[in-house]
Batch of 3 targets.
Target 1
Amino acid sequence: MSTRFPRPTLPGSGKDLISDIDAYLASDAMRALVAAFHGDPDGLSGPAAALTERIDRLYEFTATVSTRLEDKERNTADELPMTPDQADTTLAAVTALGMRDELPPRHREYDHVLMLGGLVRACFNRPAYAARLVDDGVVTAGAVTALGGHRDFEASDKSVKDPNEREAAISERLGHPELTDEYKALDLGTRLAFGLGDPEHVEGEESPDPENLPGLTWGVRHYRRGDGLSVRVAAAPSGDPKRRAHTGETYAFFAERMTSLKPGARLLLVTTPIYAPMQHFTAVRMLALPYDVEVETIGGDVPDRAPALRQPFTPTKYLNDLRTTVRALRALAEDALARDELG
């Protein structure tokens, strides 16, 4: 990769949220990416009053370069044909936009460290990275929480063309064929990463129809490590009983049902770099704005993870997640502008 772009301030990590959203949207990286795929980069700039309209234009553009439409699982998407120059520009742009780098935490002390669930790799990699930060003394945490939902891996495997990339095959290579859903995988990944025994307490409710109404099931497993660290693993309920909880709903479940957030509290979110901006924008909207807390989101992987947990991300995968990132950015901009008007 020979191209480089300056890194704009990630919205939600600077002092002026609306200005940072504007600068991120009209950054050199975003303009170059749009131009590389024959879009109109000039549509990204304009008056502050048109901020959401400009984000809408960008979102419409992302539909032309995304192979993951209709909210299908990420691991079912096809590759997008592109030239070497387009691939190079894509990787350079998403690097500047915060989707590839492993940046260190800004602080040492955090009230909460959160890891988000996902497919099998995410459920092992993110807790392992968070545990490494804690165990190496890079950060201290008042409490650690893994947030996920009830995602049936068998259902997501049906559309995956490569049999080696199906969740059942990955679980088998890890030596854990029993991992059939996200909650099981996230719980095991967290227990292994933090060296946990049996839970001290388990709470939750089962859906009367798990196959058709998975969103009604929720659960929290409470652990206590030998050094006294509180670790919890949660599967949040969904606002729509027919589907699993999405990222915003897991944040809401954490804030409303699992803790009492105090103004000024520091939250460190640990995820995979490619998803960091999207999950950060949602966390700023769902946690930082309403609760007046500081949210920081980082992505990373431990270097010595098992081969089955390693996952290359192609330019197409970054473009697919740029679409969800822009969608999260628009929701954040709407809330930020509404608060500014009430101001």
Target 2
Amino acid sequence: MTTAPSLGPRSTRIDVLRGIAILLVLFHHFNIAYRLDGTVLSQLFGWEAVRAVARNGNYGVTMFFVISGFLITSNAQRRWGALQDVKARAFYGLRVARIVPCLLLLLVAVNLLAWAGVAIFQNRAPAGATPLPLWLVNLASLTFWMNVVVDKYGWTNYALGVLWSLSVEEVFYLFFPILCALLRRERRLVAFWLAIAVLAPVYRFHRQDDEGGYLYAYFAAFDGIAIGCCTALLADSLVLSTRLETLLSWTVAVAMVVLYLRWPIAQSHVLGVTAMALGTAVLLATMSDRSADGGTAWAPARWLPAAFGWFGRRSYELYLFHLIVLGLLRTLFPPALASGGDRMWLLGGYLLLSMALCDAIARCYSEPLNRWLRSRLSASRA
């Protein structure tokens, strides 16, 4: 009898970093819909400060990329012992188990809302052009070239545009087991991924006048995942004292905050994306789970898991489905008619409704399906 494979223990530090990243994305998208100038937030902190936090949500996606590469590589090492022994069929099966159930549910929801006549969920196109058919956007979503659609046609579908990042990730992971089998040695893999990390800012430099190119293209975003992969292979060789880990972690965290707040991503993307990715990698390597739980290294930050951990555990569902909630709010409460007070109530409602919806999806749908698909994969291997 074969038991279902374990999903593995959760990492507190990773949940904290994911939680911060997803909140940056949620806040960014809300501010696009309902500008927060004239609200209590802008009165308390100033509009420039609020805008500085809200405008760079794409850096949250950069953090996700690094964490994803780190997890995929470290989990592959744990499962197969050495990356050269990664089994492609099992690797792809595990990706399907985690990614596809929520992806299919999102597509069903968006298609039903579009067919029901909710305008914000229907495809749109630049002025004078014909919108892409919904079936083509569905196909791009399922075959991981939604970022190409966004690059060429803009944010074609309000709720499905976020799938650009999933397209970048899954194309990168399509080649992951192939590279492991071909290059075999870890130092060759590190060299290859470092070359990808060096290529990305060069690519962004040559497309810096094209938002779709420097934000959404494959080679504009691969550096985050590649840096995460390298971090998983190199982190164990980093031996630092607790005091030095603390100093390095906080120094890097402060530098990331300064980068995030000081420049809009439109000005800082060439090297800023790589810098944010490297900062996330340092935090992954130096912030142990014990310290994230309030142990030695991050003792002043005992509140981090409580404040951000839940959002980190639900980050995938929140990332995919938060625009469903926001799109419905925009339909019911048009932004042009919302006062400053209304926008604060809407911000609270948006966060609470997104949390409730995504928690229900995770508990009742995606996690059970993930476990079931993994058990089927384990049974087929047996």
Target 3
Amino acid sequence: MGLGDLTRENVLRAMEEHDDLGEEAFFLRYGFEPARGLSLIHEERRYELGAIAGAAHRYALGRPLPSEVLTGECASVTRVLAQLGFEVRRSRTTALTSPAPRLLISPSYGSAESRQHWKDTLDRTVPFTDERYGRHLTESQRRQLMTLHPEGRSRFWGARPRHDDKMAAVTTGDVVLFTGDNHVRAIGEVGVIFRNQEFADALWPPKQGGESWRTVYSLRQFQTTELPYTVLNSLLGYKSNFKYPGQMVFSDEKAAAGINGLLITTRTALEEAGALPVPGAVRMMQVEQQHTHTVIVEQPARRLLFDRVEAELVSAYRDSLTEVRVERFATEAGICDLYVDGPEGRELIEAKSRVDRPHVRAALAQLLDYARHAPAPIDRLAALFPAPLASKTLGLLHHYGIDSVHRTAEGVFERLPAPESRRRFIRDLIGVGSH
């Protein structure tokens, strides 16, 4: 697409054109429509992210990028503009039901060759700046890798040329399930993706007369697990004995079913929601003693990509519900576990894998934070646990008007509701009626 070729001057010229024409004429010229998602902020003015990127491309390479080309590339646009020193800000809560990141199924442990590849580039990180690997990277590929992996190391995976069509739309923030031996063996988040056969051959030297890989992607996050295919098959609507024979790429409803069903939370989704700083973003701080500026690069804190216990608990509870709509939403506070809308009203639920006091306090804090950003007024708050709470920790939740829900048997849950007076108290406290 050429986003990596944009310069700060290109973007500033696009902003200037926007200001000269006015927003309506600017959108008409470049074929964009007003959006309420991510915005580009410059000198206290707000610009539509995609429209500015599309127009800036004209100043960089002589032709604009149309809106349909940029669709689904929000993470890439955000990263490039942040790397150029611009502020990107989210202006509203975002549902995680549609559109969703893509979901890749990547068989990766079935043959001796793939197991060796796993050992070489998944079990350990690769120092891609070393001469052995770095000499095969283009300047743009090196720059993008350093933005997401500033330590100069990353895990890598890829695909052979026969999968080029499937992999063409894959981008930063998509989710990969690494499969083998009837299990999902690991979960990853796509970082930088590009085609470079020489770099691929340096990572995974082909056997004599063997086939090279061509598509390569780094992994922003990577976490091993042992998740039976039966769990994934249930989420994706396959028969229980389905085996995932080859590379697959899902989008839309099926991707959302897998990602939300497993309660996967990517860094990219958190960045787009404003809960984490975008890699490469800088902020200028006044150093009063020297009367100069210094650039501070903010590194995101580690976030858990996948918690199998919590995901299994949420999935079981969700299956026990009837006549309700269940979603997740992302905000600058993070990503909620469950947002339930049904006959008894709207409910926000946070799940925890343990019942000790630190986990109860964490659920309490997250619920209060997420509730302020909910897409619509919340009627109830609840924390979901695998077992009953002790009386003191239950009292803590009830004091703040939060119900406790715990599992009593397979597929069976019990709710211990907070007093209605305390529910009203918390609704008033968080101001849910101010949306």
